[in-house]
Structure formats: structure tokens, C-alpha cells
Write a structure and sequence with these properties.
InterPro entries: Biofilm_reg_signaling, CheY-like_superfamily, EAL_dom, EAL_sf, GGDEF_dom, Nucleotide_cyclase, PAS, PAS-like_dom_sf. Helix content is 44%, strand content 23%. Helix 2 runs parallel beside helix 3, helix 11 runs antiparallel to helix 12 and helix 17 runs parallel beside helix 19. The radius of gyration is 54 Å and the shape is elongated.
């Protein structure tokens, strides 16, 4: 007999439609689907009657006429309810129930049977039947039994769903707590652990099991226990929202390792019934602590490193300018409180720039590191050595008995630096210039002491370096004059106070003017006429030499135009060139543009350079001078023999003229004078076919000696003093 399946739309909720996941955190909501009902009976009229009774109830009905069909349907799909006749022609209802139990079929079973015996009913109930109806039964009895069976099933499904949600929620929050990067814990009112997450094992090496029931102090570093006791007990009985404390905790991961945690604490209250099964325990209210401990060890170390680097020089590991000023300020306050003295030393390494430029910055850094170690070894325990930058160091010497204490330290500094430094496989020698200011005589504030020790240091450099000098008020006056001079010099260009003067160069054989050296003068509104030596060194120190030389190029070109217009043979003009200006690299272009603009022949220009240019940056100097020679400009070595003379320079550099310095000329006192240096320079010039010019010739004896020795071109007071442009023009017109 063929089974019939009726699907009724809009049916009631059925638990068989609910699918519970074995993992995850979100519980699905019960589905609103019609109940699946299987009708099993071998009597067609009974099946039809059952269908009629249930068809308007919103169920999906499936009919089976024998046991085999029932088992087949049960194997194909789940059912919510099975209405089962015990007496079937092929398989008994008990066997079908045994099959359902073996397959763990989740369905309520209502057994119907005409058997009056008690054994059949007992057998059905033992096999899990929801109810047992004896035939004949009333329609109302069947409907009520069906409704009750499905209602029970619905309630059971809802209970399972709620239990699953609770279990899933607990699992989720347990996962979140154990996966937290922080240690999460709770303490009872006596400070014992009642809960701690697994993070404590990973961070500190303590298991959860060995901490539960233990006092929090087992984890606290001994030095922090008192602070921990205060903070953990601070909110006891007081419902403060939260407290924060930074504590160091013990760790088993490395012997002696201490890790720093910031703890956020919250006081919690609960009834004893939360942890006790005794009904009468609800009367007692307990207090505990909920805490979150975050590991900030790496952050603390990073902060400490950043703080250290902010106050220390990375290269030498000495205090930097910021920390030095702080230490000096504290030393001044202490000295003022104790009515004591202190010394501030400003130390500048001599010849460091030469080492840095010739051996490179890497070697220069190593020199600074070794110098710092030596200087620090000379100090007392309470002294401070700092590096301000470059090759400048400072030393604060508090609790000074007298000035002699500062002298002893300064001499130790100088002595330790005199010993050679072994760098790059060679011995390097340096010295230091040290300026000393004493509190309170040389200044009562930190700024005054720093300024005055700096002034004393520069005074020592001007006196020849490699020594120490105490500050004196006269130095401040000289320094103020320098500052005033620098300011006035900046205004001199704007006000037109600079002038060009010219000292003629004479051919002693013909007494004709063959050239002139350009000399700058400053018509100072208060101090009168100043020579180049009075202000050009300041210009080189403060970067003013560049605009001043630019002005000079324009001035001499305009003056040369007037010279050429005066008639006669063209006169060669010599101009002194600062090493800074040559290093800029654009001197060639500036000179070329000026000569082109004013239509002046380049052969009328001779550039005078010193020997220091040759050794400062020889390759650059050679390139610049070669370009000038290609333009037609000649090159002269000024003050030859007074610097780091080397005959190789005369071969490597494009030199046309050698100028004999006036310091050698002054030694010629009579016709029988022995001046081997002068004779050697003249001999070198002749051997290399170079022009010769003697400077500073003031007597006829000097003139005769030089001319007899082979030098014919001279300049000096014997012929002419430096002349203004107006007088130079008048002299050229007469000639």
C-alpha cells in the first residue's frame, strides 16, 4: 500500500528543524516550521481517520502502512512525532521503537494498540514512548495527546537552546579572558587569588592552579610589596570605581628577571551565596578586587632609553647640553646655599678639524670618544663632564676650595690629551684650549658662567692654544668690541663705508709702475680708517667675507676701467682671495661675468692665494686655479715661506708669481746681510721661471740687495704707500 504525505503550510514550530552547531559562539534561533508527523498503521481506515483528525492542525503528515515503510521513512528524514500502531503485519511496533533508539532518532512516540494486556504498554513506555492510547480512543483524546507531546518537545528544544547559549557564552568569554594580552585576576577580601587567566603562565611562568588560593604578594617584587599592600587595601570597604598602580612582578622565565606591570584595580562586592550553597549565607556581603595587569616592561625600557638619549650625547655617552645646563643649575644653587665656589671649564680641542678633514669623520668620531674617556678619568666623582657638540666639552667642578683646584684639573686635561691617540694605524696628536669661569666672581647665573668660560677659551686660542685661561673682565670688553665690530661691518656694505686702496708695484730697473695690489679699507664712522687686518678676520669668522669679496670684484673692475682710460701701458691688478671664497666654487663664474660685463682683459688680473689654500683642499684649489689660468688670469703665491711650504705645491699648482714676504725683507739691514731664505726663494723662482715680487721694501739697502740678488719688481713705502683710487689715477696719468 502506497504511503501518502500531506504538507500543510503555516504549521507550528517544530524542534526537529533546529540545528545545533558543535562549535562557534552564536546560537541559532529556533525555526518556525510545521511539525513533521509520521502515521504508522496497517489498517487503511485508521490511517485515513488519523489524517482527517490531524490535517487541519498545520502538520506535515507522512503515512506508512507497515513496519518496513516506517523504517524507510525514519531513515530518510527526522520526525517530531510518530503515531505508531504496535501490531503490524511485518515488523512490530516494539521493533520499530528499538530501531529508532538504535539510530538515536529524536522524535516523540505515541503508541496506539487494541491490546488490552499490560505488557504491551509497559514495553512501549520502557522504549521511550511518550504515551500509550488503547483503541478505540476518542478524537479529542488523540488531539490532546498530540498537542501535549509536541508542546513537551518544543519546551525541551527551547531548554536545550538556552543551555547551549549559556555554554557558548561562557566559552566565548573564557576564550576572550584567556586570550587577553593582559593578566586578568580576582582577589577575595583577604587578597587571595580566586581567578587568574592563562596569560599569567605565558608572561610570568606561574600556572593558574598554583596561584588560586595564594596571596597576591607571592607575585610582587619584594621592594614593591608595601606599595602593593597600600593600594590593594586602599579601597577595602570603600566602593571606589578604580585604582591604578605600577608594580614589578616576579618571573620564572629568566633568573632574576623582573617585569613591570600597570595594574587597574576595581573593588567588587558579592553575596556569600555567590560562592556558597548554604541558604542562610545570603546575609553576608563580601568584598574583593578585580584587577587587570598589563605588561609595560618593554615600554618602560624604551621610555628609559628615549629619556637617556634625550639627556646624553649618543657618540660619547656624556651628558649633553640639556643635562649639562641642569647639572650646572643645581651646582649653582648648592654653591649659593652653602656660600661656596664652583668652576666651569669650557674645553675646545685644538686641531680637531684638521684630523676630521684629513682622516675622515669616522676617525674624528673615534678621536672624540677616546678624548671623552681621557677627560672623564681626570675628574672627581662629583664633577660633570658634558659634550656640547662638535669638539666642545664642558666640565662642572662643584665644591671648589680655591682656583688652584681648577688649575690642577685643567693641567690634568692638557696632559692626558698630549699623549698620542692611535687612530687608523697612526699616531694623532691634539691639544686643547680651556677657558675657566669661577662662581660667583665670574658670574652668578648659568648663562653668565657659560658665556664667560667660552670667552676665556677663545682668548686662550688667540694666545696660541694648548693651555688654560681664567676669565677676566677685560676679555668681556674685547668680546663686546668684536660683536660691535661685526654688527658695524654688516652695516658698512649697506652704507658704502668700504673703499679700495692700491699699493703700486714698481720695476726698479725702469722705475715704472707695472702693477698694484688691491687693499681694502674701512672708513669707520667712529674709529677712522681701518686696515684689512682689523676687520677681514671677523668677516671670515662670521661669513661676511663672501658678500664683501663680491663687492670688491665690482669695485676693482670699475677702478680698472678708469685706469685703462688714463692711457699708458695696462697695469696688472693683484687681489687677495680668501680661502672661503675659493672653496665656494663659484668665484670663477663671478670673476668671468664681472670681466665680461666691464670689458676688461683677464690678463690684467692676478689672484693672490696663500699656501694654506694649497693644503686645505688641494684638489679643489687646483681645479679652480686651472680654470682661472684658462681664462687668462695669473696666480701668485702670497707670503711664500711663512706657512706650510712645500716645493711640490709649485709643481702641482698653476703658479705664475712668488711674493717674498715682508718679514724676510725686513731682515735685510745692510749690503752685507746674510738672508739665505730670500736668496733661496729667488733661486726657486728663477729655476721654475716664475715672476718675483718683494713686499715691504722700505730702504734703498733692501732695494739694492734684492735687485742684486735677482728680484726686480718691488712694492713698499720706499716707493708708494697704499693710495686711494683718486691718487692712483693721478699717479698713472703722470707716468
Amino acid at each position: 500500500m502506497r504511503a501518502e504525505v500531506d504538507v500543510i503550510a503555516g504549521g507550528e514550530w517544530t524542534p526537529s528543524a533546529v540545528s545545533f552547531a558543535s562549535h562557534g559562539w552564536s546560537a541559532p534561533a529556533p525555526a518556525q516550521l510545521p511539525a513533521q508527523v509520521l502515521l504508522v498503521d496497517d489498517e487503511p481506515r485508521m490511517l485515513s481517520s488519523l489524517g482527517e483528525l490531524l490535517k487541519d492542525r498545520g502538520f506535515v503528515l507522512t503515512s506508512a502502512a507497515n513496519g518496513g515503510e516506517a523504517i524507510r521513512y525514519l531513515g530518510q528524514q527526522p520526525f517530531d512525532l510518530v503515531i505508531l500502531d504496535l501490531r503490524l503485519p511485518d515488523i512490530s511496533g516494539h521493533d520499530i521503537m528499538d530501531f529508532m533508539n538504535s539510530q538515536q532518532a529524536d522524535a516523540n512516540i505515541i503508541v496506539t494498540s487494541g491490546d488490552r494486556g499490560i505488557d504491551a504498554a509497559i514495553g512501549a513506555l520502557k522504549r521511550g514512548a511518550y504515551d500509550y492510547l488503547r483503541k478505540p480512543y476518542s478524537p479529542e483524546e488523540l488531539r490532546k495527546t498530540v498537542d501535549n507531546a509536541l508542546k513537551q518537545r518544543r519546551l525541551q528544544a527551547e531548554n536545550r537552546h538556552i543551555a547551549w547559549q549559556l555554554e557558548s557564552s561562557e566559552r566565548k568569554y573564557r576564550y576572550l579572558v584567556d586570550s587577553s594580552p593582559d593578566i586578568i585576576y580576582t582577589l577575595d577580601h583577604e587578597g587571595r587569588f580566586t581567578f587568574v587567566n592563562d596569560r599569567v603562565q605565558q608572561l610570568l611562568g606561574f600556572s593558574r592552579e598554583e596561584l588560586i588560593g595564594e596571596h597576591y604578594s607571592v607575585l610582587i617584587q619584594e621592594d614593591d610589596v608595601l606599595r602593593a599592600n597600600y593600594v590593594f587595601n586602599e579601597g577595602r570597604g570603600d566602593y571606589r570605581l578604580s585604582r591604578n598602580v605600577e608594580l614589578r612582578l616576579k618571573s620564572r622565565h629568566a633568573k632574576g628577571e623582573v617585569r613591570t606591570f600597570t595594574h587597574e584595580l576595581m573593588t567588587i562586592s558579592f553575596n556569600a551565596s555567590d560562592t556558597s550553597q548554604e541558604p542562610d549565607s545570603t546575609q553576608q556581603e563580601l568584598f574583593g578586587t578585580y584587577g587587570v595587569a598589563r605588561d609595560i616592561t618593554d615600554r618602560k625600557r624604551a621610555d628609559e632609553l628615549i629619556t637617556y638619549q634625550a639627556y646624553h650625547d649618543i657618540l660619547t655617552d656624556l651628558p649633553n647640553r640639556v643635562l649639562f645646563k641642569d647639572r650646572l643649575g643645581l651646582a649653582v644653587l648648592q654653591a649659593k646655599r652653602n656660600d661656596a665656589s664652583l668652576a666651569l671649564m669650557f674645553i675646545d680641542l685644538d686641531r680637531f678639524k684638521l684630523v676630521n678633514d684629513t682622516l675622515g669623520h669616522v676617525i674624528g668620531d673615534k678621536l672624540l670618544q677616546q678624548a671623552a674617556i681621557r677627560l672623564k678619568a681626570c675628574l672627581r666623582s662629583g664633577d660633570t663632564l658634558a659634550r656640547l657638540g662638535g669638539d666642545e666639552f664642558t666640565a662642572v667642578l662643584p665644591e671648589l676650595s680655591d682656583r688652584q683646584d681648577a688649575v690642577l684639573i685643567a693641567e690634568k686635561f692638557l696632559e692626558c690629551l698630549r699623549q698620542p691617540f692611535q687612530l687608523a694605524g697612526q699616531s694623532v696628536h691634539i691639544s686643547a684650549s680651556i677657558g675657566i669661569a669661577i662662581y660667583p666672581g665670574d658670574g652668578e647665573s648659568t648663562d653668565e658662567l657659560i658665556r664667560n668660560s667660552d670667552i676665556a677659551m677663545y682668548h686662550m686660542k688667540a694666545e696660541g692654544k694648548n693651555g688654560h685661561s681664567f676669565f677676566d673682565r677685560s676679555m668681556l670688553d674685547a668680546s663686546c668690541q668684536k660683536i660691535e665690530l661685526e654688527h658695524s661691518l654688516r652695516l658698512a656694505l649697506e652704507r658704502g663705508e668700504l673703499e679700495m686702496y692700491y699699493q703700486p708695484q714698481v720695476d726698479v730697473r725702469t722705475q715704472k709702475i707695472v702693477g698694484a695690489e688691491a687693499l681694502m679699507r674701512w672708513n669707520h664712522p667712529e674709529r677712522g680708517f681701518l686696515g684689512a687686518g682689523d676687520f677681514l678676520p671677523f668677516a671670515e669668522e662670521n661669513g661676511l667675507i663672501i658678500p664683501i669679496t663680491d663687492w670688491m670684484l665690482e669695485a676693482i673692475c670699475l677702478d680698472l676701467l678708469d685706469w685703462n682710460a688714463a692711457g699708458g701701458e695696462p697695469v696688472r691688478l693683484s687681489l687677495n682671495l680668501s680661502p672661503q671664497y675659493l672653496d665656494r666654487g663659484d668665484f670663477f663664474d663671478k670673476l668671468k661675468n664681472a670681466l665680461t660685463l666691464h670689458h676688461i682683459n683677464a690678463s690684467q688680473i692676478e689672484v693672490e692665494v696663500t699656501e694654506n689654500i694649497c693644503i686645505h683642499n688641494p684638489q679643489t684649489a687646483i681645479e679652480q686655479l686651472n680654470k682661472l689660468c684658462q681664462l687668462g688670469v695669473s696666480v701668485a703665491i702670497d707670503d711664500f715661506g711663512t706657512g706650510y711650504s712645500s716645493l711640490s705645491y709649485l709643481h702641482r699648482f698653476p703658479i705664475h708669481t712668488i711674493k717674498i714676504d715682508r718679514s724676510f725683507v725686513m731682515k735685510i739691514q745692510n749690503d752685507n746681510s746674510q738672508c739665505p731664505v730670500v736668496l733661496a726663494i729667488i733661486s726657486i723662482a728663477k729655476g721654475l721661471s716664475l715672476n718675483l715680487v718683494a713686499e715691504g721694501v722700505e730702504t734703498q739697502v733692501q732695494e739694492r740687495y734684492l735687485e742684486r740678488s735677482g728680484c726686480n719688481t718691488m712694492q713698499g713705502y720706499l716707493y708708494h704707500k697704499p693710495l686711494s683710487q683718486k691718487k692712483m689715477l693721478a699717479l698713472l696719468r703722470v707716468a
